[in-house]
Amino acid sequence: MADDPNRKHQYEQEQDTDATIDATAQQVDNVLIDLNSAGPVASGASKSQGKIIWEQFAQHKSAMVGGVVLILMYLTAVFAGFLAPYGMNEYRRSPTAAFRPPTQVHWINPETGRLTRPFVYDVVESRDPVTRQRVYEEDTSTVYPIKFFVRRPSQPYKILGLFRSDLRLFGVDDPARIFLWGTNNLGKDVFTRVLYGGQVSLTVGLLAVWVALFLGLLLGGLAGFYGGFIDDLIMRLVEIFAAIPGLFLLIVLASLLRDPRNPLAQAFGLQMDSAQTYLLIVFVLGLVGWGGLARIIRGFILSARELDYAQAAKALGASESRVLWRHLLPSTASYVIVSITLAIPGYILGETSLSFLGLGPSEVDTSSWGLLLRDATSRGISIQFVPWLLIPGIPIFLAVLCWNLLGDGLRDAFDPRKRR
Questions:
Q1: Is 3.20.20.70 the CATH number for 64-76+192-418?
Q2: Which one, of 170, 171, 193, 197, lies nearest residue 183 by Cα?
Q3: Where, residue-wise, is CATH 1.10.3720.10 in the chain?
Q4: SS3 breakdown of the chain: % helix, strand, coil, rounded to 5?
Q5: What is the DSSP letter of 250?
Q6: Residue of 306, 343, 319, 304 whose CA lies nearest to 215
Q7: For residue range 323-351, what is the model confidence (pLDDT) as tens digits?
Q8: Distance from C-alpha of 326 to C-alpha of 229, rounded to nearest angstrom
């Protein structure tokens, strides 16, 4: 009987413990119910880093618009042969079509006054007796309907350099011609040449930025990781490039590499074709633009090499190259993505400047937006009479603007301090 009070006390403690467990379980159930009912709040904790970055980027409306416009511009460059009504260098010797204004597309039937299939008229050239400028007047005696998905075996093209075709989106029957954005001094279609010019001006930025990225990551990573003499040598080289004005350096390098007296250029000579000139511009632009990226990467590596994960990799026996390329350089990915996005507009403008100055690809077998703008400043041309020759400046402006908008959006998306 003496043990009865003790048993009773033990029994009461067990009852209290069971009650506490039941209460705790009920609280846990209530919390789970609240989390399930919270929906997005509960699921937000399990979002991946990529999904968070994408959601933040999607809130940047101007960056989304810039990205969509860039996608459309690159698609038009890829399918330029299909979208363009004529060949890149196609023109007619007789009758000539030099400086012909944009063709007027008619939608109203002149006889019935009703909406009809789009058509154009042929034009007749004459001279203004006062200004002596060419004047083109429509010959309304014959209607030339605009046809879609027409075959032109005389002007084939290749898509991505692989798929050969002669199918064009639209066209008209001879002798009529359709020039949506007018013609240049040789009678070449400006609309066609702008589409083909995007293949050079848009892609040269993408390729040049990879050259700069490779040099910047390699040399900046080596300078930050090893330090000492290697760091001093690479940083002094960066300072030399930074001390020379960028456009001046581009002009000097492009000129020297095309000089037949230069041993490096003797392998090519003055008769460089457009493909070689294109690769030369890519190399020159990348060579000029790697310094700034290398300096920033060096700073990242200097701070990251002392962190715990880098020291742990060394302690586990990882080689120096593995620590650098597998652990340190990947930590700079967010900055590198934003940096190369913001650098591409500069390379596009660099190629445009070189082409405008006559140091870009030849007009004989290719086209670029800089070459087309040079037509507007040719000798003997008064731009007030041929304003359509300035149209190639519009895609340059759009490409640079959209790449900058896209870069701003990516910068905000990768920045944790601007998460909303």
A1: no
A2: 193
A3: 64-76+192-418
A4: 60, 10, 30
A5: H
A6: 343
A7: 877 778 777 777 888 888 888 888 888 88
A8: 24
